[in-house]
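agent> Task received from the user: take the single chain below, predict its 3D structure, and emit structure tokens. No templates, no multimer pairing.
agent> Plan: (1) validate residues, (2) run structure prediction, (3) serialize to tokens, (4) report one or two observations.
agent> Step 1 OK, no nonstandard residues flagged.
tool_call: predict_structure(input=
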Amino acid sequence: MTKRDVPPASVQSVDRALEVLEILGRDGEGGVSDIADALGVHKSTVSRLVSVLESRGFVEQISDRGKYRLGFTVVRLAGATMSRRDLGRESRDICEPLADTVGETVNLAVLDAGRAVNVTEANGGAGIALRTFVGQSCPAHATSSGKVLLAGLPEHRLHPFLVVDLERFTPSTIVSADVLREELDGVRERGWAAARDELEDGLTAVAAPVRDHTGDVVAALSISGPSFRMSPDRLPDLSHQAIAAAQAVSVRLGHTG
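)
tool_result: status=success, residues=257
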């Protein structure tokens, strides 16, 4: 260890826990004694750190050897980060031609704490176009992308979103958990979602799911524009185009279904 200022006890514990992860990441595996020697601390300190990390899945014990290695939680977090990076890169040259074809705004969004967050955006050539921003988030229950993302959740992850008060933004916003659940059932059945004047008056969007190599829904690809232009009779065609584009992105993420 290099010499440095000693942080307060609680921060020092976090710092040492992170060093444990770095050691296992560097060496591949290690026992309590090995890690203690590397950190320059007592074995009991490492035992406590490893116990907490193991309980959260950050490390796992190699049972037949009494050593530890990085756990699946680290892989999952790394995968989530890479997935978002890959989404932006892999979807851009699909979203841009689609935006030009339909003349509307195309977004790719992911779910974060109950909100749909844009990670990619392409604007069509229409005279009146939406101007949103990458990184902007919107409440999931009031958007087509959000509905797709919620519909893709397993029940135990969806339930928390159905037991809270749903905020109303317009007279068309779904604020009933029962109605939202029925809406999500419909999204799963037909493979796409729509939101007409639900987030704001005069805004309509359709969205379709993007899946990764495991088949999980990791993003939603949406087409959005002014409601007067995205009339109800136009939505089926736009939804088919959104589905096709979302499937193209899914293939690039390794989905073969």
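agent> Step 4: summary for the user.
Strands lie at 59-62, 67-70, 105-112, 115-122, 137-139, 193-196, 203-211, 217-226.
agent> Done.
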